[in-house]
Amino acid sequence: MKLLILTAGALLSASLAHAAGATTQNFPGAPGALTLSGRCSKLVVGKVDASKACVNELASVTLINGQVTFIFTAGDKMLGFQGDGTKIKLASEGNVSLPLNLVVTGAGQKMTGQVKVTGSCTMGNPYGGKPVSIECTAKSTDTAFSSTFKTNGKAPKAK
């Protein structure tokens, strides 16, 4: 009986460890949309600083082809940092880095423009139960884009 209990406990521990690891590997997640609550402390496009108007909620959209977009909003304007989620790499301090290829812009509910960029978003795992930062920086031929968002430590909400 003790062996059976020990084996069941070991299997449960292994399953939980696997599940915890899976959430780290799966962020930003399977295709779909989710939102993160927290604090947007920086949103800058070129010389325009929209940080004060930046909404304290960040959307993450993952497409079926693996493209990931982090969407920041300020007033009725949107700014999305987009990259290939299949190319996410480990970064420092347990974070990962998403290489960026586009910045998308929009107003209201519609995305209206695209700019080719180079850059990256560095992020922690928001499923870990503690606040993490998501920082994006990108450059086009004539404009720089940057943002910083810190989650409240609660798991993302699926949309």
Quick gist of this model?
The chain has one helix spanning 2-26, and strands at residues 32-45, 48-49, 57-62, 67-74, 77-84, 89-90, 96-107, 110-123, 133-139, 144-151, 157-158. The protein is α+β, with helices and mostly antiparallel strands.
Question: What does this molecule look like?
Answer:
- The chain is 16% helix and 52% strand.
- The chain has one helix and eleven strands; from the N terminus they run αβββββββββββ.
- The protein has an eight-stranded antiparallel beta barrel with strand order 1-3-4-5-7-8-9-10.
- It has one domain.
- With 159 residues, it is an alpha+beta fold.
- The radius of gyration is 18 Å and the shape is globular.
- It starts with a helix and ends with a strand.
- The longest helix is centred in the N-terminal third of the chain and has 25 residues.
Key descriptive features of the protein:
159 residues; 1 helix; eight-stranded antiparallel β-barrel; alpha+beta; 16% helix
